[in-house]
Design a protein that fits this description.
The protein is of the alpha/beta class and 312 residues long. Helices cover 29% and strands 28% of the residues. α1 packs across α8.
Amino acid sequence: MDRRSPLKFFSGTASTYLAEKISKSYGTQLGSTQLLRFSDGEFQPSYLESVRGCTVFIIQSTFPPAENLLELLLMIDAAKRASAKRVVAVIPYFGFARQDRKDRPRSAIGAKLVANLLTAAGIDRVMTMDLHADQLQGFFDVPVDHLYASSIFVPYINSLNLENLVVAAPDMGGSKRANAYSRFLKAEMVICYKLRKKANTIEEFKVIGDVRDKNIIVIDDMIDTAGTITVAANMMMEEGARSVRVVATHPVLSGPAYERIENSKITEVMVTDTIPLKQQSPKIKVISIADIFADTINKVYNYQSISGNFIM
């Protein structure tokens, strides 16, 4: 007799577009929820169907505004108080991940605080993709399934059949990620050196390695203001590169990002749908991560190994 608890999918309001694709790929439908808003802006999510004894997967990326994180926390709390057997937080984009250490005096470690809040709310497991730093998994005291978008990006890059392919790291911190891509793509790697004196402002930029007559793929976990990638792309093209493409899992794309990408020498920017695009761009291609999350959820629910879903 199968004693597994029933499985149900729910979504926060910010990620409904993605949750619908994940649930469809899985072969089910999203559960019904309601978000009650008070006149002063306070809100209260609730479930419109029973979750008693169920394994509940709540899908919500925690990009700004901070209400998205708060809504996820309240949904977790509501599920636990409604006697859900297990609650899994599916967070395709884990916000506040850049605050993973004290990089200046008297600053918060936001990523650790968010991990503590999720644990306090009652999660049993976390499922996410391409954390800003792998060690963030250690901030949690529950299992973390850390997926990599390389499993969908690498096949797409291979399909382009680019000659003289070179993988580029946008900074020293991204060299590990770029090195993994270079191994799978069997390509050489170059590193971009940048000096920042304050957030989102580049003071100095250099490319370490040969890019002349090469097709470059710049690898990063996210694109925020697009300052780094556009400076890197323009510099590489000036140094004789054939083309520059960018792979970034999370399209944060704030401030002048879209304008910078449009005006740059970048051929194509490949992103996933962990965060919805604010506007469309002919240079930005979105590749959905719905299938890989659906497959991982299925394996986690059925107590199967998910190691085959990792290629990095």
